[in-house]
Design a protein that fits this description.
With 263 residues, this protein is an alpha/beta fold. It contains 10 helices and 8 strands. Bound molecules: adenosine-5'-triphosphate and magnesium ion (MG).
């Protein structure tokens, strides 16, 4: 059984940063496992924080866009197996790193209906995901993807918040919407990012209220401090995955990773 986990929260709260820290933990401690990272943010930052060569052509939306164009132009031979074509193209755009594979969803390109292609895609991605033990998704900010239910196969949800009212409100809305659209997460993990001591009990209270109201398995798993090395790496364009292992933010993420990921 694979474990599928997505990370969500308000814009700019640190989703991709925390994703990178948790992926660093996975790369170090789950070397015997097959790991798939999915970058579900149209603004795609995962390759950068993981220190990979970024290639804009390597995204699922590019591949589906090109296929759609070919279908519309009628340039495919009769009886052409579009599903097989898509499958081959997806293998070509997969980044294969030493410790994990990475798939970038990319930005929706062109207008019109992708329903046919999206169905083909689902038939390819579902069996592909079965090849992995852990699938970890970095999502775009906000809530829209929840109502589109792009996360329907996700088992557990991480919600990141900073010490802002909007961050807390977005956390509440994410939980509410997930219940409204009947997404059944077996666990909601809450992470406070850039947190001071004073804000911790406020978050704990908000999460206890959510637990009472929605009768869900939800808990604050920890807090990541504001960290100078993370700031400087971001400014200099240096990969977060290369943070030293004694970095305090990484050490906190390591404690969380130990509880979140199942061997
Ligand atoms: N703990 C931290 N210490 C220092 N800087 C941080 C920390 N967490 C996040 N940042 C910085 O905050 C900014 C936003 O972080 P990040 O890109 O991870 O947020 P996000 O939630 O993924 O944003 P988006 O909604 O755009 O995807 C980045 O510049 C990042 O370096
Ligand atoms: Mg992000």
């Amino acid at each position: 059984m694979s474990q599928t986990i997505a990370i969500s929260g308000k814009g700019g709260v640190g989703k991709t940063t925390i994703a990178a820290l948790l992926i660093k933990y996975l790369a170090k401690h789950f070397t015997d496992r097959d790991i798939l990272i999915i970058d579900g943010d149209p603004a795609s930052n995962i390759p950068e924080v993981l220190g990979m060569e970024t290639d804009l052509d390597k995204s699922i939306s590019r591949v589906t866009y090109h296929l759609k164009q070919k279908i519309e132009k009628g340039s495919l031979p009769p009886g052409y197996d579009k599903g097989l074509h898509l499958q081959n193209e997806i293998y070509k755009i997969m980044y294969e790193e030493d410790d994990y594979d990475v798939l970038v969803l990319g930005r929706g390109e062109g207008k019109g209906c992708y329903c046919f292609i999206n169905n083909l895609l689902k038939n390819i991605l579902d069996p592909l995901e079965e090849n992995y033990d852990i699938i970890f998704l970095d999502m775009e900010a906000g809530l829209e993807h929840f109502s589109r239910r792009t996360d329907r196969d996700v088992d557990e949800l991480i919600i990141v918040t900073d010490m802002s009212r909007m961050g807390f409100n977005t956390m509440d809305r994410i939980v509410e919407i997930s219940k409204e659209v009947h997404l059944t997460f077996s666990k909601y993990w809450i992470i406070g990012n850039r947190f001071d001591e004073e804000a911790k009990p406020i978050l704990a209270k908000r999460v206890a209220d959510l637990k009472d109201k929605f009768k869900i398995d939800i808990e604050v798993i920890g807090h990541i401090p504001q960290n100078k090395d993370i700031t400087m790496r971001n400014l200099n364009g240096d990969a977060l995955i290369d943070l030293p292992e004694d970095n305090p933010a990484y050490l906190e993420a390591e404690k969380m990773g130990k509880r979140i990921f199942k061997h």
